[in-house]
Every structure is written in structure tokens, then in C-alpha cells.
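Weekly puzzle thread! Below is a chain. First person to post its structure in C-alpha cell form gets bragging rights.
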Amino acid sequence: MAAFAAQAESPFNPATDRIGRVLCFAAHPDDIDFGAAGTIAAWTAAGVRVSYCIMTDGDAGGFDPAHRADIIARRDAEQRKAAALVGVSDIHYLHQRDGYLEPSHEVMKGVVRLIRELRPDVVLAMHPERNWRRIQKSHPDHLAVGEAVTRAVYPAVENPFAYPELAEAGLEAYKLPWLWLYAGPDERENHFVDVTGHLKAKLEAIHVHVSQHPDVEAMEAAVRKGMHTNAARAGLPAGHSAEAFHVVAVNGPGTIAGF
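Winning reply:
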């Protein structure tokens, strides 16, 4: 697995905290690839099972009017190809409308259902807080993903009386250990993953989303610059690339139920 460089305040210790199953949430096809594909490639290379849940179909995305009629199918195909490049084949959709996503109980129930089904060690999701330094990271759908997932993680996922029909269907309450958030404010980020060895796979995955890139060279240059900046923030050697996360410990040895 790729080397992990964690700031002191990160609660996650890669030497002792093991990950075997990850469930990733995103608003649109391509969000995960920009935010976390390098880390995901490192996980799958180490044998971690990773699943994706895309909340919208990406129907409002793209730049070419000629793609409108088949944009949903086109973006789904792009996401599946990009996912395969980083070792992921299990992809779920909540089929919400692009640009209209809200942290509704319909969405939260879908999140709870999937977490209880897969019972991951880590839930990876977009951040619920707006990034004022680069507002493009804070599309309203991105914020809605973060809010819906965070509300679902606590308390609904672990409360057997939340959405009781799920428990009645055999999906028992589950205490999630870790919540990893991406695409949030820089000041919230407390954990960095050195993905230098998986940079090629990440960039290849991003390049798959051709329907979304009017300027491919500028896009790649921005991604590379951001990852080098993350590596410098993490104290990694020059030339390294890193992805940044806000890691939250949800349930651990010191967790007291209800507090």
C-alpha cells in the first residue's frame, strides 16, 4: 500500500488501524476520481474491497450540446471505465437529479441502507462544509452528499430504530469506525495519503471523463499542482503527490454511545 503521511491531529494511524472494506460516496461521476482515486488505487492494490455510490446520474454535466440525449449513459460508462482503472467494479447509484440533490430522508435512507449492507471500515464522502478559497470544490450537490452521509453515519446507521423498515428487512444497525471526507476546506484536512506510486492510475481515471473536460491540459496541470501542494503540506519530499482528507473517528475504543 502507498505510504501514509498523517498530520499529528489525524485520529487515523495506518500502523494500527486496518482497512478491509471501503464505501465511497460522490455526487457525480468523476468526483471520486478527482478527490480520491490515488488513495483508492492504493487500497485496492493492497486487497481492500472498495465500492462506489454515485448519488446523481450526472445528467446536468458536460459541455457538448450533442451529448444531451445520452449524457447519463455516457457518464455511467465513463465512471465504470475509470473505476476499473483503480480496481473498483462495484458501483451503485441513487439516481437523484443532478443539481437538485438534497440531504433528504429519501437520500439518507439510501445511504443507511447501503452502509448497513456493505458494513465498511471506512465511509469516504464529500465534505459538507463549503471551501471559500475555491468555491468550485463546493458544488451544492457536493455539500449535500457530505451532509446526507454525515447525518446517516450518526446516528441513523447505528440506531436500530431509525428507518425501522431497514432493520425489519434484515439490515441491522452498524457502528461505523471511520468517516473520511474529501473536497473540503483546507483547514479541515488532517490526513494526507502519499499516492505518488498511483498517480498514473489517478490521472488515467480522470482522463476517462472526456465529456467533462473542455481543456484537458489545464485540467491535468491543476490536478498535478494540487497534489504537489498537498504533498508539501504533509511534509513529503519534493516531487511527491498526495491526496488530502478530513478523517473523523466515528466509533472506536473510547466511544461512548449517545455522546
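Puzzle host: Confirmed. Bonus trivia for everyone else. Helices lie at 31-45, 71-85, 105-118, 140-153, 164-168, 199-208, 216-233.
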